[in-house]
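Lay summary. Proteins are chains of building blocks that fold into shapes, and those shapes determine what they do. In this project we predict the shape from the chain. Here is one chain we studied, written as its sequence of building blocks.
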Amino acid sequence: WDAALSLSSMVTSLNAKSKGASLGIFTRQEEASSVPLGWTAVSVALLGRRFEAATKSHDGARIVRGVVNDRIARPSGIHGQLSRAFGTRLAVVVAALRSVAAEMRLDHLQEADNALGYRLYCAFRPRVADGRAGWGAKGRLL
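And here is the predicted shape, written in a compact code that computers can read:
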């Protein structure tokens, strides 16, 4: 769960930078973040994108984290952001996502760098207006 929260923060940041550049809000796409000292770069495929995340051993286990602005994306911080955004509906959202994930075959999800995951995300995410009108707008969860 912690890896999912951290990696989702990284994907969100990369997608926002790409969308901002396509809308002319950013003059150029920023370079990918650097993996902090003490961590090792690892290639990750998630939601149709392939990128470098960070990994290291901790208490005998391998952990993976997203990197945003040259810093490890802290799962507790992302959980706090989600709690504020979804409020009392967060538990329902997480339960729905876990239910869908439980029905998926791992090999099917891994195809095309998990592009199916991105299509599911697009179907689930809150709706905002297209183009500049939707930039930074608060979406509405159905």
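What the prediction tells us: The two ends are 24 Å apart (CA to CA).
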